[in-house]
Write a structure and sequence with these properties.
Layout: H1 32-43, E1 58-61, E2 68-69, H2 72-82, H3 101-110, H4 126-138, H5 158-165, H6 172-188, E3 194-197, E4 200-203, E5 207-208, H7 210-221, E6 225-233, H8 234-242, E7 251-254, E8 256-259, E9 262-267, H9 280-289, E10 310-313, H10 319-324, E11 328-333, H11 337-345, E12 351-355, H12 369-372, E13 374-375, E14 381-382
Parallel strand pairs: 1-6, 1-10, 6-7, 10-11, 11-12
Antiparallel strand pairs: 2-5, 3-4, 8-9, 13-14
Helix pairs in contact: 2-4, 2-6, 3-4, 6-8
Length: about 400
Amino acid sequence: MLTAVVVPEQPRASAAPACRMLAADPGWYGDNRERIDAMMAELGTCGGAAEVATGAPLALFDWDNTVVKNDIGDATFFWMVRNGKLRAPADWAATSSYLTPAAAAALSRACTAGTPGQPLPTDTDVACADELVSVYGDAETTAKDPAFAGFDARRMEPAYAWAAQLLAGWPEPELAGFAEQARQENLAAPEGTEQKVGSTEQTGWVRYYPQMRDLIATLQANGFDVRIISASAEPVVRVWAADLGIPADKVMGVRTERDGDVVTSRLVPCGGSVSIPYIEGKRCRVNEEVFGISGPAAYDVAAPPRRAAFGAGDSDTDVSFLSDATALRLAINRNKTELMCRAYDDADGRWIVNPMFIEPEGQAEPYACATEGYVEPGGGDGPLRRADGSLVPDQADSVF
């Protein structure tokens, strides 16, 4: 007769710890957090490599009003004007090929105190400061003449480009120091602060969104290659992104050529033509820099293996790179028509919409997608269509 041998039960090996997930936070709308967590679990590798070149999924973030509340390009421009750090050009018309003769003349009349190559005294010269602020912020002179003309509105926002071009003459390390001073000042200012720039009142505070700080860190922990694609000046965005552990070589912004380490006003082209990271210009920069697609093809939608998995943005300038994302697309609702038409239409079920995490916008009127949902190259609005050519119907604003 066989005697049964009882083997003592062995303790089970503990399960491997789950990879980091997003923190519970009331700022996340509906099931957005759960959908992002599910995407990371499906596509990520806990503690895995975080480089596209070695197979990591790519996550792309716009910066201004997506990762932070308010605009760091504005914050730096206003700081430079208030502190007299913009250098006088020999010829205002040479600062931007899109600057109108009226704007160049207005700047020449207002900014007479500067010596070419030396800082303008905009900390004391109110007339010059006001003209700069008007051209940059309103795209018109203080006399209400148009400041910019002759650009493709799907590849260029000339005021954003001009803010980067006006940094010319400074070595990049000094610019980084200015950007850091502006960063500290805007983070320290109470929410709602306004600052005097020339004779005008301008927004004077910025905040990192805690939810986006957590999202970026969680994506990195899950093996995503996280990069920034912004229409602010690249040296400025690098300073702000460093606080989130995003290295300089993973920041894409408005880039100008260098003479040694000194910044010039010459824009670096993309896809063989002049553009900045703006609508199709953002797609071009990602395709060219991240995936090595050169020439005019960089403006085209790439094959899925050469596209981001995840994207986050808040404005029409982000619509192309967001539409290219293959897994999820997070639209922060700032009531921008083309973006919200795409997001609410949600033709393939991959869009998620979230209110702004600080001072969310109120509900917008229904978006006129079928007639005014598309930013035309000439700057006007036209009907928005899906990839198959069908018209996107008007959309109600339901997440705010």
